[in-house]
Amino acid sequence: MARLLLIEDDLTIRTPLIRALRERGHAVAAASTAMAGLRDALEDRPDLVVLDLGLPDLDGRELLRMLRAVSSVPVIVATARDDEAEIVRVLDAGADDYVVKPFTAAQLDARARAVLRRGPSGADAQDPALVVGGLRVDPRARQVTLDGVVVELTPREFDLLHHLAGRPGQVVTKRELLTEVWQIPYGGADKTVDVHLSWLRRKLGENAQQPRYLHTVRGVGVRLEAPAAQP
């Protein structure tokens, strides 16, 4: 049973969503304000937070930044803001996933289960560390080092890099990444992959114009390989 914290101020959304998620086997707590949600997240340590952006006391994106400063709990943002720029800002602030209102409890449940499957208790927790050049990805410790220096990644960034590191030198398509890393169907969400790849490049000290490890194959996908392997 997963412990979910729903931070949502709209009672007409919050009440039926709590009931539906409980019927699907989750333990659900709820908060109606940003500060109450932050307190509950820190005190109760839920497995996952579902965060509305339009909260009465503080914008949800600001709450997300505050939460990310002190916790790595997975966060799914639930928002009525469906423009691409806003979605990118939400991901940039540290969200692991997002759903656009209106959504069904079944959709949110599927997203929550997909995010939780990628936690350290999953199957990859027993996998050996992957080494590609100076890059070391350790799924047991959920830690990445580059030339011996720890690289701080979000849970989703780690999962993305771990998937690529397991296929060094291979071109991995966005379809595969969305299916295997995000556990969602391909179509309309490939911008999410681009955004996370951009963050990974920045944290690995490179960019798309001067890649070292992450190489975009235009129209196909991305390839991870050691710099020494480049011609």
TrEMBL record:
<dbReference type="InterPro" id="IPR011006">
    <property type="entry name" value="CheY-like_superfamily"/>
</dbReference>
<keyword id="KW-0804">Transcription</keyword>
<dbReference type="Pfam" id="PF00486">
    <property type="entry name" value="Trans_reg_C"/>
</dbReference>
<keyword id="KW-0805">Transcription regulation</keyword>
<feature type="modified residue" description="4-aspartylphosphate">
    <location>
        <position position="52"/>
    </location>
</feature>
<protein>
    <submittedName>
        <fullName>Response regulator transcription factor</fullName>
    </submittedName>
</protein>
<dbReference type="InterPro" id="IPR001867">
    <property type="entry name" value="OmpR/PhoB-type_DNA-bd"/>
</dbReference>
<dbReference type="Pfam" id="PF00072">
    <property type="entry name" value="Response_reg"/>
</dbReference>
<feature type="DNA-binding region" description="OmpR/PhoB-type">
    <location>
        <begin position="127"/>
        <end position="226"/>
    </location>
</feature>
<dbReference type="InterPro" id="IPR039420">
    <property type="entry name" value="WalR-like"/>
</dbReference>
<feature type="domain" description="Response regulatory">
    <location>
        <begin position="3"/>
        <end position="116"/>
    </location>
</feature>
<keyword id="KW-0597">Phosphoprotein</keyword>
<dbReference type="InterPro" id="IPR036388">
    <property type="entry name" value="WH-like_DNA-bd_sf"/>
</dbReference>
<keyword id="KW-0238">DNA-binding</keyword>
<dbReference type="InterPro" id="IPR001789">
    <property type="entry name" value="Sig_transdc_resp-reg_receiver"/>
</dbReference>
<feature type="domain" description="OmpR/PhoB-type">
    <location>
        <begin position="127"/>
        <end position="226"/>
    </location>
</feature>
